[in-house]
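Fig. S4 source data, part A: sequence.
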Amino acid sequence: MVALTCGSACARNSVKPSLTLDGQWGGEHVVLTSSESATHVEFDCAYGDLSSQIKTDSQRRFNLAGTFVREHGGPVRQAENIDSHPASYEGSVSADTMTLAVRLMDSNESIGTFNLTRGAAGHVVKCLQLTR
């Protein structure tokens, strides 16, 4: 009985270890792929990169710096300036669900909040050039 009581008390006081996220996570308008060395995110008409794998804290939250690049329809020209911005990737994970908020650091513009599922393909529409 004492062991059972201690087990219940210990379980209530346990702290979750940090969580390292890898593989693919997908949702509407977003696909995130994380590996040991980097994380890449595809959005509708944009993409983002983080120079590390996502690792949560003990509360399953994360906040990482990266870049966010806006794309456009048609080809990318050789001397074209890329529309790149420093960005904050902040989120949380619960089981196989991730909430991800993206904000541009240079303008404080919110790109949006996305819900992703581990292993899901996601649905992203890339920019296309319309022809007449």
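Fig. S4 source data, part B ends here. The beta strands are 20-21, 23-27, 30-34, 39-43, 46-50, 54-55, 61-70, 83-94, 97-104, 110-118.
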